[in-house]
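Sharing in case it's useful to others searching the archive later.

Someone asked me privately for the predicted structure of Transposase IS204/IS1001/IS1096/IS1165 DDE domain-containing protein, so I'm posting the question and my answer publicly. Question first, with the sequence:
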Amino acid sequence: MRDALTRIALPPGGRAGARLAFGLAMSASRDSQLRLIRALPDPQHQTPRALGVDESALRKGHTYATILVDVTARRPIDVLPERSTDSFAAWPSKRRGVQVICRDRAGCYAEGAVRGAPKPLQVADRWHLWNNLSTAVEKVVRRAHARLWPCDDREIVDLAVPQRTPG
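And my answer, the predicted structure tokens:
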């Protein structure tokens, strides 16, 4: 029963897991479901081939950490207590096998990757690529807006929808 409740609780979490268990005629509160999840051992991670690196706010505006993610498995691997070159450089230097480092344009992660693991290819992650592209496109459109849509009050045309004829 414990294994079944743990398998039910793990994907959705406490409250949704409790509702699902109730629907399967297994009585377990959301707190019980969360206790089962917390009792599980931490999963052992292999060194990823593609490592994602980004900052994470522990206390927004005050305290930032570095989160490391296995990009192919889409799972967090580790959280470093600070956002610095030295703390990040130490992580890949202890673990061989990283082939690609996906990161934003932060200088501390670029320098840390070069110091800790100079061989892996460094690439910009997908979110930052899209964010940078959308920002650039928005700037271009704003500058060209007046030339793209010249509008004079005399040129406004009434675009009334034509009436459909029966049949």
